[in-house]
Amino acid sequence: MNKFKIFLPVIAALFIFVSCNTPAQVKTDEIAVKVDSLIELMTIEEKIGQLTLYTSDMDQTGAFIRKEYESDIKQGKVGAIFNAYGTDYTHRLQEMAVNNTRLRIPLLFGYDVIHGHRTIFPVPLAEAASWNLEAIQNASRIAAEEAAAEGLHWTFAPMADIARDPRWGRMVEGAGEDPFLGSVIAAARVKGFQGENLTDLNTVAACIKHFAAYGASQAGRDYHAVDMSEIMLREVYLPPYKAAVDAGAVTAMTSFNDLNGVPATSNHFLLTELLRDEWGFDGFVVTDYTSIMELLYHGVAADTAHAAELSLEAGVDMDMQSGFFQQSLAKLVAEKRISEDLINQAVSRILTVKFELGLFDDPYRYSDKEREKNNIMRPDQLDAARDMARKSVVLLRNEENTLPIDKNIKTIAVIGPMGSNQRDLIGSWSAAGDWTKAVSLVKGLEERFPNANIIVEEGCAIEGNDKSGFKRAENAAKKADFVILALGEAYWMSGEAASRSEISLPGAQQELAEIIINTGKPVATIIMSGRPLTINWLAENSPAILQAWFLGTQSGHALADIISGDYNPSAKLPVTFPRNVGQIPIYYSMKNTGRPFDANSKYTSKYLDVPNEPLYPFGFGLSYTTFTYDNLSVSKPTYAMNDSIKVSVEISNTGKVAGEEIAQLYVKDHAASMTRPVRELKAFKRVWLEAGATAIVHFSLHPNQIGFYLSEKEYVTEPGKFSIFVGGNSNANLETSFELK
Ligand code: BGC
Predict the structure, then answer these.
(1) How many angstroms separate the Cα of 474 from the Cα of each of 127, 309, 424?
(2) Using 50, 70 and 90 to split pLDDT, how confident is the model at 27?
(3) What is the pLDDT of residue 20?
(4) pLDDT at position 314, please?
(5) How many other β-carbons are positioned within 10 Å of the β-carbon of residue 64?
């Protein structure tokens, strides 16, 4: 047979193949062919190299790579590097790999681009308070655009961990306590980072973390053990990760915790049975920082090789920083303790992402000087950060319209450690953000109130007991027409390894607040923090309170927009604010118990020394206007299992200014085979209303959204009576009901 004859059937087959497949499928199949042929050529050492991720470092002179890692890169013993960014630097590292290794496989560059890269957006918990999915997606898109312009291919975000314990410092990195809100936000972030197509130059690969249930660390102490029923896991903790998988995230990260006795990093149930087999995730799994090594401390691995074996067998593809794969996998294969096939699968998943990013077409395509110059901290990116920041601020109290303040005000005193502060504004995990570029509250106010006399007194530091500034602060308050009390936590008090057992205002700030508020001047307190703080006294005594979290680069401008009334706040808490630490864990979707709270009956579920009610409920947030809800109705009294449940409600702006309301829909299942939460968020809508205007807002639910896990494997929606509550927070009491048949 001549060559032509062999080729004809191949061409015909290719034609059929191309004509029956979508372009995306063709591309995926093409990549699969390339990946397979590349793996054919690789030695075992080269394969293990692809499974190895090491960090770059930083000292006073700038970024550098450890000598031993440089040598590993040149020998193809490393497939990915994190904490390296900048076009020159990433280009240099990429050259080490491409110019020195036999197969010229490019490195993958990862980094924690969590809430912005250079332009720092509000911390994720703050963004979640916006309940604004388009804005959140856009924030992640801009973060990706900046990161990808500086040589980065991959971000370790979004963090999709549900967090119900504000002692846990990492609550700041996620979307709060609720599985529904957490899910839609995780999906929005993945879409923002990855865009339409991973090959596009303004996108980066996303990484769902930390898989799984890291947010349930016992007693809010970071890295601590997690023990929970699989039903709780599936109903509360897993949905946001699953939503991120469904949104197309191409990588996932294991968590540090163990889950029911098995560390996440060696957890076959999580990484293989659930993530891959049940959910169909086909990207790669990276460990968290040295978490393979930590299997020794967890006490499940006897030595380095055993730890490597357990994690690879469980479903890990890439080892972040332990070096255990590098040290042990070849030996494990030689000893036939693991099959080379397992390694091939991991290599294949990693190479697939490298192909999808276009790195094999041009390994330097992300390290582009022009893009680095033009795509960073552009005015439009800064504007988006400012807008995201305004959307994230929750107005917790506003007695007698204390806020906004009159634009012609004469004297404003800004008192407290967060007034001129820049360092803390960008929060934890601020990537390549430069805090010196952050706009302080005072700076924002000076620009917004050019004719006002703005007196600034720190009063006290964030921490410590030095009260020597109190007198000056009190005098400043007395001289002012309006006082802004700027209080909060330092940026490092939340984030990783930043759990607190007390979540009140640190240092002498509470005392400062009491002195200032007792002057009787009109006061608005601004709280910057990475978690809910127990601010009971302020909640009773400060005429106005703004929960500002950490708002990022544009903090001061965003706050000035709100304080001046140029922007009407609309954010709602993505997490319950407790009254004290003893109430934790506290969240709105609790169970009713067999003895629900009754103030007049001793033997009901309650505390002797604090109410059951939180200080502020989930979903709560005020506006400069007021909204009322009326005429809540369902389209019919009874629905079948395949119907859409149609709900409508009338919302009116009954105040004097236009504003946005976030209408929340909660569902209660009256009687089911398993106990159900008192209510669960199932939908929300943002509604903009001019003063005096009314709108009818429609929701549509499918019965499968209101089901539950009857057992680990069985999700059901049972017939029966359901109530629907719609309102502006999780205590909404406007109710209607329907029957599901
Ligand atoms: C954190 C991860 C992070 C990783 C890389 C770990 O300590 O838990 O969230 O992505 O470091 O920086």
Answers:
(1) 34, 63, 24
(2) confident
(3) 59
(4) 98
(5) 14
210-224: string of b/e by CB count within 10 Å (b at 16+)?
bbbbbbbbeebebbb
* Entry field: residues in the chain: 741
Kind plus residue range of the DSSP H or E element containing 528? strand 523-528
Q: What type of residue sits at position 741?
A: K
- Residues 528, 405 share a domain: yes
Looking up residue 698, the CATH number of its domain turns out to be: 2.60.40.10
Region 359-370: mean pLDDT is 95
- List all residues 6 or more positions away from 496 whose beta carbon is below 8 Å from its beta carbon: 169, 170, 222, 428, 429
- Among residues 327, 342, 357, the one where a domain terminates is 342
Q: What angle do CA 211, 49, 361 make, to 5 degrees?
A: 90
Instruction: State whether the Cα torsion 671-676-679-684 is positive or negative.
Output: negative
Please tell me whether residues 408 and 514 are part of one structural domain: yes
The Å distance, Cα 149 to ligand 1 centre, comes to 22
Ligand 1 pocket test, pick from 255, 496, 499 with the greatest ligand atom count within 8 Å of Cβ, gives: 496
CA of 290 to the centre of ligand 1 (A): 9
Quote the CA–CA distance of 553 and 74 in Å, as a whole number.
38
Active site (annotated) includes residue 643:
no
Q: What range does the domain containing 699 cover? A: 627-740
| Residue 534: both structure tokens together | 């127990």
Q: In the chain, count of helices (H) and strands (E)?
A: 22, 28
Q: Which of 56, 81, 112, 293 to mutate to test the pocket of ligand 1 (most atoms within 8 A of CB)?
A: 112
Ligand 1 neighbour 289 (Cβ under 6 A): yes
441-469: average pLDDT: 98
The residue nearest atom 2 of ligand 1, judged by CA position, is 288
Q: In this structure, what CATH number is given to the domain that contains residue 559?
A: 3.40.50.1700
Distance from C-alpha of 433 to C-alpha of 122, rounded to nearest angstrom: 12
288, 317, 368, 424: which is the annotated catalytic residue?
Answer: 288
Residue 289 Cα to ligand 1 midpoint, Å, equals 6
Question: Are 635 and 572 in the same domain?
Answer: no
CA of residue 211 to ligand 1 center, whole Å: 12
Is 9 part of a structural domain of the chain?
no
For the stretch 669-698, pLDDT in tens is 999 999 999 999 999 999 999 999 999 999
Is the shortest distance between the CB of 214 and ligand 1 below 6 Å? no
**Is 502 within the bounds of a domain?**
yes
Side-chain half-sphere CA neighbours of 15 within 13 A:
6
- 568: in domain: yes
Query: What's the number of domains the chain is made of?
Result: 3
**Report field, pTM of the whole predicted structure over 0.85:** yes
Longest dimension (CA), the chain: 100
Nearest CA among 481, 433, 410, 454 for reference residue 122: 433
Q: pLDDT tens across 30-49, in order?
A: 999 999 999 999 999 999 99
> pLDDT (tens digit, 9 = 90+) per residue, 700-718?
999 999 999 999 989 999 9
Q: Answer yes or no: is pLDDT of 7 > 50.
A: no
- Give distance in angstroms: CA of 266 to centre of ligand 1: 17
Does residue 170 line the site of ligand 1, with CB under 6 A?
Answer: no
pLDDT at position 330 over 70: yes
For a mutational test of ligand 1's pocket, the pick from 289, 322, 428, i.e. the residue with the most ligand atoms closer than 8 A to its C-beta, is: 289
Ligand 1 proximity of 154 Cβ (cutoff 6 Å): no
Task: Look up residue 88 and give its two tokens.
Answer: 């020159």
Q: Are residues 426 and 278 in the same domain?
A: no
